[in-house]
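We keep the chain:
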Amino acid sequence: MNDQSDTSIPFVKLALERKLLTEEQLDLCRNLAKKSRKIGLEASVEDVLISKGFLTPEQVHELTEIGQLTEDGKVFGAYRVGELIGEGGMGKVYRAVHEFMGRTVAVKVINASLTNDKTNATRFFQEIRALAKLTHPNIVTIFDAGRINRRYYFAMELLPGPSLKAYVDSKKMLSEREALSLIRATAQALAHAHTKSVVHRDVKPENIIFDAAGAPKITDFGLVMHHDVDHMTLTQEGCLVGSFYYTSPEQVDGNRDIDGRADIYSLGATLYYALTGRTVYTGNSPQELLTKHLTGNFVSPKKYNPAVSQATVRILRKMMAIKREKRFQSMQEVIAAIDGRSLWHKLMNVALYVLAGAACVALGMMLEFIR
């Protein structure tokens, strides 16, 4: 950093506005940076701020990113940008407020380095178009999209979280009833997406996030595949997309004809995680992990959670069959199986209650006879 040691430095200006830094702290660091240069050291204000502990490297990075994104360090189009809340290979997600509507949203902005990359830009557009087609209480809602300052973006519903992964990790594992309820809601969302010819291809606990009411919502459609005449898939033969821990065997094989049954497999792997707090497979390398998806034979969730019923194990194994022809053929079938298991469980409870009642009556009659 050069001799710009005042509030004209974008990240310093933002730090002061957000009360992460005081004028006194800045003056101190400015003087220390000047003294260091006099003795031949090239310490910048940024270096001193970090070394003194007034700002963390992460805060400097975040504030610098926001300063580069916006024209004046604050406003990006119609949005007043807040903190960075997520970051991935495609872009960054910021908390923001729409200036006119007052709505707090999450704004996802494609990385500047990818803006002119045709393939990555097209992937970003596919996510936007997929979300625009979908309206469901368990799918994140998109509000706006466009291009500002040569950066593509879209604004979507801000979910407070946590993610399903974080939630499971906090509880070690979920009860069978809660896990099935969450998976059923997600299956309904994916069933809706499939009816719109949209396949997610990256279903995993990290991409299921809770809203303020505690409902799970599927997010991150960045690897989505369209099966309609208006869109062409970006997947090439031999190209794997999706998480190593949750990806379907056909995705491991690099098949081009991926359909909704891949999402069923990944949702099954997600159910396994919810029930056990463990991924269905582990490995010392990505290759070992992917090979296990192709061979199957995962450990029953009952080993880690004995309370899981055999009926749920059967549902899980069918969802995660290696050959997709042997899986449930639609999300509607998955939902029906979960509902059927719940109904059977209720009927069994009723039967046990009736039998217990009958036993009590019989015992009472025997005691009365003895008297």
Observations:
- The chain has three domains: 1-56, 70-158, 164-347.
- DSSP finds twelve helices and ten strands in the chain.
- The domain at 164-347 is CATH 1.10.510.10 (Transferase(Phosphotransferase); domain 1).
